[in-house]
Amino acid sequence: MARGKPSLTPLDALWQAPALLWMLAAGETVALILALAPGAPGSRLEVFGLSSLVVQWILVVNLVALYALRGWAEKLRPMSIAYLALVLLLGATFVVMQAVGLFFPGWTTLGGQEDGSATARALGIALAVGLLGLAAFHNHWRGRLNAIRAKQSELQSLQARIRPHFLFNTLNTGAALVHERPGEAERLLLDLSDLFRAALAGPRKIPLGEELGLARRYLEIEQLRFGERLQVRWELPREIPPVSVPALSIQPLVENAVRHGVERMAHGDIEIAVSTTPDTVVVRISNPLPPPAPGGHDGHRVGLHASQARIEALTGGRGSVRTEVVGGRFVATVRLPIREE
């Protein structure tokens, strides 16, 4: 089974090697511009070397500050993290320039006639570079969210073509129960009505407890169809955390656990567990791995991608869906932020 690729937050991406190399290159570019600027004191090679040293120290101080604040900053929206990085860049510039003035008095590489003027000039350069970076990040993040929403619409269209499979199976099960067990047939139709009402309501946020209720109704329908072949285990806290979740984002993962796990086995079980951390609600859905399908087709992919698109789009990229194989079981893990944007 394929694993879902983790969705990196802006801070996660910042510690990756490509991002660090780009920052290093940007710092060297700023130093080169300062060395080539008209009126630079001393030899240009010396100006470039000293400016490069100062600029890289500013970047190091900025990165250290971001890393120290990562636990708190990860709770912020992506654009708020970008504004925080700009403020820390200005702070790092001020600190480094003050240290330069203290240990190297009279140094005027940045064109200042005195320490205060050099610091002001450095802050202006840092602000200009930071605003350019902020604009670039804003365009990148907006494009990323638009791509997620476009993918979400595509996957919803695909799911609309898949749902008749479930509908026909459910109606056939209901027809078989009408005469022998009319009470269960009525419950099946009521559960089916709730599921399709949620599907027709479109993209929206609902309480986690309501989404788990939809998953429970789906499993009740499937248990009537599979009988003892399907066993369901719930591990829920005493009180469901009061967080919002995109409608029909967890239920498709449960549906995949049935269709691509239990349905291919003589007996199978599904585990649904909910746990919390100080900042996150974690929902885990697991099912046993059946024998490989002909051609090695990974049937979990549609439901995974649909749920991931919904959660990323409606949580601003702060939620995620990841999958892994643990002990012969396929596990889908949904992480939802407790704190609303």
UniProtKB/TrEMBL annotation:
Entry-linked InterPro entries: Bact_2-comp_sensor_kinase, HATPase_C_sf, Sig_transdc_His_kin_internal
An annotated Gene Ontology molecular function: phosphorelay sensor kinase activity
GO cellular component terms, semicolon-separated: membrane
Pfam families: His_kinase
Entry keyword annotation includes Cell membrane: no
Superkingdom as given in the UniProt entry: Bacteria
Coiled-coil portions: none
Domain named Signal transduction histidine kinase internal region: residues: 153-230
Keywords of this entry: Kinase, Membrane, Transferase, Transmembrane, Transmembrane helix
Transmembrane segments: 20-41, 47-69, 81-106, 118-137
UniProt-recorded name of the protein: Histidine kinase
Lineage, opening ranks: Bacteria, Pseudomonadati, Pseudomonadota, Gammaproteobacteria, Lysobacterales
